[in-house]
Amino acid sequence: MSTHVEDSTIEVIPVFAGSINNEKQQMVDARALHRFLEVDARFNDWISRRIAEYGFSAGEDFYSELSKSTGGRRRREFCVTLDMAKELSMVERNDRGRQARRYFIECEKRLRQVAPEDAASIGEETIGVAGLQKLKALVRGKVANLPAAARRSATAKLWSQTHSAFGVRSAADIPADQLDSARNFVAAYAIEGEFIEAGKPAPGITLAPADEMKLHVLLAHYREAIRDLNNLYIAYQALESKPLLRVWDHLHEGKPSYLGLVNSLGSALEASYLHQIGEVGRRHLHS
């Protein structure tokens, strides 16, 4: 990543200190991000659609307010957390989106360098934005197979139940040592029974045992690949290799989906895999 690219991005997408839910956050002007990403859709349509599609929550991921009156019509402005800005950039799936996301990652690194106490205050005591991102991926996966009309209500219900279960107003306030418990709570919550009509099967696919086995192996290979994400990025910076950067981008973008699959299907796939291996072994013994 060149300094020129970083400086030009800083000018167009300023990151500023703010707060949301009474917590210190690095914030981004969503309208500035929209301009930088060169999105074809109007800003209001774009931000509304992304909030609905990805289950972002007001007061947790963003806040909005009317602009100051200058004599004309007042606009509604959106300020989003750095974590939401990274995701908005990622889902555009283009060079501008990747450039913006890498810039936001760099902003996080700089904060850890110049103000380590601010950067660590949430992460050390609570799950913080990193843990919240994992829960969001799990929640999105949990409601993905519900009817489109029910997804927003189901998402709100899941977050409400999670907040109640852990006694917090924001999921980011869940104690750091309870992240696994929170993930297990979301994964086990039977949201489908509340939002799918009785007797009506949930949409989706059923995998054959052989395909379950292949998916288990694929996830195992992905797990090994993402263990080297940091080293891969360091290698890209040292070698300035665009192919390495593309590999890093794809692995990084796929990580939330991977974590969601592991949380929702990991145990079942592991059991199916071991069963298939056992079946192969038994057939071999009797052949």
Number of domains: 3
Helical percentage: 55-70%
State the separation between the terminal residues, measured CA to CA: 58 Å
Q: Structural class, from secondary structure content? A: alpha+beta
Kindly report the spatial arrangement of strands forming the biggest sheet.
1-2-4-3
Describe the structure.
The protein folds into 3 domains: 121 residues, no CATH class; 77 residues, no CATH class; 83 residues. It is 67% helix and 8% strand. The protein has 13 helices and 4 strands. The protein has a 4-stranded antiparallel sheet with strand order 1-2-4-3. A hairpin with a 2-residue loop joins strand 1 and strand 2. Helix 11 crosses helix 13 and helix 12 runs antiparallel to helix 13. The radius of gyration is 21 Å and the shape is globular. The N terminus is likely disordered.
For the structure shown, list the relevant keywords.
287 residues, alpha+beta, 4-stranded antiparallel sheet, 13 helices, 67% helix, globular
Care to give the gist of this entry?
The protein has 287 residues and is of the alpha+beta class. 67% of the residues lie in helices and 8% in strands. The termini are far apart.
What are the SSEs and their pairings?
Layout: H1 3-12, E1 15-20, E2 23-29, H2 30-37, H3 43-54, E3 62-66, E4 76-81, H4 82-90, H5 95-114, H6 116-125, H7 128-143, H8 148-166, H9 179-188, H10 192-195, H11 209-226, H12 229-239, H13 242-286
Antiparallel strand pairs: 1-2, 2-4, 3-4
Helix pairs in contact: 4-5, 5-6, 6-7, 7-9, 7-13, 11-13, 12-13
